[in-house]
Each structure stands twice: as C-alpha cells, then as structure tokens.
Amino acid sequence: MTAVIATKEVCRYFGDDEETMVKAVDKVSIEIERGEFTAIVGPSGSGKTTLLHLLGGLDNPTSGSVELSGTNIAEMSGAVLSDFRRDHIGYIFQSYNLIPVFSAEENIEYIMLLQGVEAAERKRRVADMLQQVGLEGLGNRRPNKLSGGQQQRVAIARAMVSHPEIILADEPTANLDSKTGIALLDLMKELNEKHNMTFVFSTHDEKIMNRASRLIHIHDGEIELDERK
Amino acid sequence: MQTIKLAFRNLFRNTRRTVLTVMLIAFSLTALILVDGAMRGMLTLMVENVTGTITGEAQIHLVGYRENLDVDLYMDDSDEIEQILRQDSSLQSYSPRVISGGMISSSYNVSAGLLYGIDAELERGTSKVSDAVVRGEYLSGLDSELLIGRSMADLLEVDLGDRIVITLSEAGSGDLAQALFRITGVLNFGMRELDDNFVFVNIDAARAVLGMSEQQTHEFAIKFNNPLDAENPDTAIFQQFNKEEIEAMGWLDLNKEISLVIELMAYSSLIVGSILFLLASLGVINSMFMSIYERIYEFGVIKAIGTRPAAISRLILCEALLLAIISCLLGSLLGFALGSWTSTHGIAIGEIEFSGIAFNNNILTEFHVAQFTQFPFYVVLLTIVAAIYPARFAAKIVPSEALQRSL
User: How close B289 comes to chain A (CA, Å)?
Assistant: First the structure.
C-alpha cells in the first residue's frame, strides 16, 4: 500500500507567548494509505479540525511536514498551493458551504472551470455526479431550494467531480438528521469502495466511527490511539 | 465569463446595499454633470456679458491707449482700418468709437463719467447699447442725442428730454470744451460700472466736442462670426493689426481678471468633482468590505477548493466594475434628464454681480461630450481603484481562518 498522506512531527501552535500558547496539533506523525476510510476522532477542542486543515493545506504548520502523494505542501503557498488543492483534494464542510448564487449544477461545475475542463466534459461529469448522489432533476435548484441533506449531497458531488486523490470531510453529518446522515455516509462509503478514493473525516459522530476502516483518536493535539479495524 | 456571472449574481445578493451604493455613485456622477453643465453655462453667460455688452470680442487701439484711455492716443486712419474690417469675412460686425472722460452735469448735480461716441448703426450689431434702452429711443444720428445710464440719471436727477452738459479736454490741445445734449434714452445694462458712469452720443458729435476729425478714432470694437476666433492669436485680424503702433486684442487679453475667473471656475469643477468622487469611493470601499465580511466563509470555501488568490481579486474587481457600469448608466441618464430640463429652464440665481459682471438671467446648463464620456470613465476607473484594497484583502484571506471565523 502507498501512503497518500504522510505527516512528520507536524505541529500547529497558536500564539507566541510561551504561557498562553495553544498547542492545537503537537508532533503528529501519521500515514494514510490510498483507499482508506479514516476518521480522526476526539472531543471538541482536541485539534481534529486543525489537523484536517493541515492535511488539506488550508493552514500552514508551525513545524514539521505534510506530504500529499510525496509532495510537501507545508512549503507551498499562493497560487501553487491553490492549484494543488484544486487538483488533489476534495473538501466537504460541516455546513455544506455551497455558493448560494449558483445552482447545484453550477456549484459542481465550478471546480472544473478552475481546472479548465472543456464544457462538454464538464456537462457530462456534472450529470454523472448528480446521478451518483441521487439528485437527478434537481441540478437547476439553488442551495436555498434544497434540503440540508440534498445540499450535502451537492457538496459531496463537488468534492468528487474533480477526481481528487483524497477527500477531507469536516463533521459532514453534524447538521443532518440521523437518517440523512446514514444515507450520506453509505453513499460516501460506496464511492470509497467503488473508486478506491481516500476519505479522511474529522468527527465525533458514532455513525462515521462505525463505518470507518481506521480511527485516529486525538486529544489535546496529540494522537492517543491509532486503530485499524 | 464565469467570473462575470458570479460577480453579477453576487451584486444582487444584497439588493438594498447594491441599490444604495449604485445611488451614491450615480448621484455623484449626476451632480458632477450638472455642476459642470452649470459652470459651462455660467461661463457662456459671463463671456456673453463681457463680449456682448460693450467690450466686443476684440478691440483695436493705439498701443498704450488702454492703460489710461488717453484721448490723445487716437488712430488717424479710420477709413483704411474700416476698409480692412469690412473686407474680412470672419467678422460679423465692427464699431468705431471715440472715448473720453469728462464732467457730466445736469441742472441739479454733477458727476464724473465716460463719454462714448458711437456709430449708431454699426454699434447696434456689435454691442448691447441699443438693447439696453429701457426708456426713450436709441440714437438716430442727431448731434444733440444722448443716452445715459439709469443710475447716473438718478444721481443727476434727470429724465428724458432733460439737458446734460458735458465738459472735457479736447484731444491734442487739451483745451476745455463743453457741449449740450438732450437725453433721448435711458439705459440699463445691469452692470453697475456701465450704468453709473457711461453716456453715449453719436460719434460725429463726440468728435466735434473733442476736436477730432472724421478719420480719428480711439477704438474699434469687433465681433466675429465664430466667437472662438477671438481666443485664437493666429486669427487674421490679430496678425494684421498687431503692428508697432496699433494693437488688436481678444477679449481674454482685454479682461485679464475674467481669464483668472475662468481658470478659477475650472479649478472649482475639479474640486467639486474630487470631493464627490472621494465620497463615492469611500462608499464603494465600505460597500465592498461589508460584502466581503458577509461572505468571508464563502471566500474561505472557494479558496479551499482551489480558487487562486488572483481569481478572488478579479471577482471583487469585476463586482466593482459592474457596480460602476450600472451606476454610470443611471447617473448619465439622470444627468441627461435633469440637464435637459435645466438647459431649457435654467437654474434661477437671481440678480448677482460677480467680478463686475451682472448675472440677471437663469443659468442655462450646457451639455458637453466629456460629461458622458470622460466623467463616467473616471467614475469606473475610480470605483475600480477604490475596490483594489478590498480585493487584495479578499485575496489574502487564509482559508482555515475564514472557515473558523463564521462557524
């Protein structure tokens, strides 16, 4: 198995003063392999979201390295980092975060526009993704005309349509009812198995933990337990 | 294309704020169009008053005559000059004059004043003396006729038909001479300087009192077919007459203080425009920042999924550009509508005297192509410049911070 993500002694500290400094992530070294369905779990404030941001290049580590497919993204910045995120990482956020003035189709298409994918191919992939997430016929609706579950399905489609190597999901079921959450998790698990896509969740949702192939327990910024099922 | 689509839709996410910002920019442009139109109208009125009342658009005299209106500095070859002026097709009219300071007396009072000897017919086409007659008749050519300003008539306590005695020094000899005239008309120019001090008689009568021959003239006032010729030093008249002894001057050179006023008015427009644009710019910056702060989480998201910082800058600048274009369309339409009304009905200013010039008419605003090309261009440019700072701010948003901030 090859490691898609590898961190070495990665730290993220907030504040300069020794006394008030917060060690959100402290000397974390992990390797996540292709196709894993991993959940970073821990109580609120344990540093799981910060670690997820570091893995996705949304934040720069105080020290240490974060390698995605062998590239150290901790050393990247600006447009190079943006392009790397666009081509290698898909994100799913807790509160869906679709562009409100775009329809579901346009939200899914947006990332392909950034990638310069041709119009016909974009159209084909959007239709395919809508079908895969069960939103056929709803592509023209704007986010405010979709339910929470439907919006999160669009977010999943947006994250997957660019064929990223990994998908990072920050509490993706937190704002959904139990039934919708389970349905979406089953969908993500199915996509994981079908496309051998790597998923990393930050969560304290039991439903995700039950479905994850690996659980990384984090507490006060440090890894407490790393278990594979 | 996607950026324009996104920018356009973003603009109307908060319709109220966009409408208020558009109104701010549009009204600033409208105000600027009207202020510029009023300035241009005022300038036209001022030039008309200066050139049309008595001065003319240009004058010919002996060099040095204008310094103190010395009666001895007259031109000897009137016929020759008149022949040249008659043949010049660029001239609409001209008028010869003899001028002298003197004592103007009635049976009741006395006043210092300026006697203008004019050719009644030629003067009619060159100045507003005939139009200024408010009572009585204009000159018909009789030696005894005299036109007097209303306020001087009040001072001398005289009216139509009353006698006026003018005492002055003869040209050349300097001997005192007197002549009796009867008031045939009372004038009101609306300019204090003229109404208080000037009397007009027929040129032959004036020459007789001053001891001047028919060939001798102090001044020729000129009116061009194209008023702009008066401002062009290359105009034939100026080239032809600016010799050693004789000088021909346009109205701008004859009225140095008016040139300064015109320059001042240009600066006024610039200052008013700058203030309006500054206020509009602050409005744009404020609106843009409000819009960015409202969408900061969204910027975090689109940056997280791979939008480059430059693309976010472009989006904000595109929003500003669309805002400016919409504002300019509205502002220009409003400016045109209001300007059309004020260009026919005028802006009432009452009777005011500015720099010795009376304004007793409504100022009719004037359109100029720059108001609908340059001004909107400046508005667009300034709006984009004002949006650069918010755009840079949005581009520098750190996704992890933006995502945390609004959670």
Answer: 19
Please give the residue of chain B at the shortest CA–CA distance from A99. Answer: B298
ipTM: 0.84
**Average pLDDT of chain A to the nearest whole number:** 89
Of A56, A97, A162, the CB nearest to B298: A97
Is any Cβ of chain B less than 8 angstroms from the Cβ of A82? yes
List, for residues B174-232, the tens digit of each pLDDT value. 888 999 999 999 999 888 888 999 999 999 999 999 999 988 999 999 999 988 888 88
- Which residues in A lie closer than 8 A to residue B302 (C-beta atoms)? 99, 110
B304, B310, B407 member nearest A79 (Cβ): B310
> Do the strands A3-14 and A63-68 form a parallel or antiparallel pair, or are they unpaired?
antiparallel
Measure the CA–CA gap between A194 and A190, rounded to whole angstroms: 6
Of A50, A94, A99, the CB nearest to B298: A99
Q: List the helix and strand counts (H, then E) for chain A.
A: 7, 11
Residues 6 or more apart whose Cβ sits within 8 Å of residue A123: A109
Give residue-wise pLDDT tens across range A51-96: 999 999 888 899 999 998 888 887 887 889 899 999 999 999 887 7
Instruction: Give the tens place of pLDDT for each residue, A165-202.
Output: 899 999 888 877 888 888 888 888 888 888 888 999 99
Nearest to A90 by CA among A31, A148, A38, A155: A155
Helix (H) or strand (E) holding B92: strand B91-105
A vs B, Cβ pairs < 8 A, gives 70
Give the residue on A whose Cα is nearest the Cα of B401: A59
Is A115 within 8 Å of A162 (Cβ atoms)?
yes
Most A CBs within 10 Å: which of B11, B295, B400, B406, as the mutation test of the A interface? B400
Percent of chain A with pLDDT over 90: 46
Q: Write out chain A residues lying below 8 Å of B310, CB-based.
A: 79
Put simply, whether A102 touches B (Cβ < 8 Å) is yes
Give me the residues of chain B with pLDDT under 50, please. 406-407
What angle (nearest 5°) sits at the alpha carbon of residue A43, between those of residues A41 and A46? 85
CA angle, B248 then B253 then B257, to 5°: 155
pTM: 0.73
Q: Around Cβ B285, how many Cβ atoms within 10 Å?
A: 18
Which residues lie below 8 Å from residue B144, measured CB to CB, with a gap of 6+?
B180, B181, B182, B205
Give the tens place of pLDDT for each residue, A117-135.
999 999 999 999 898 888 8
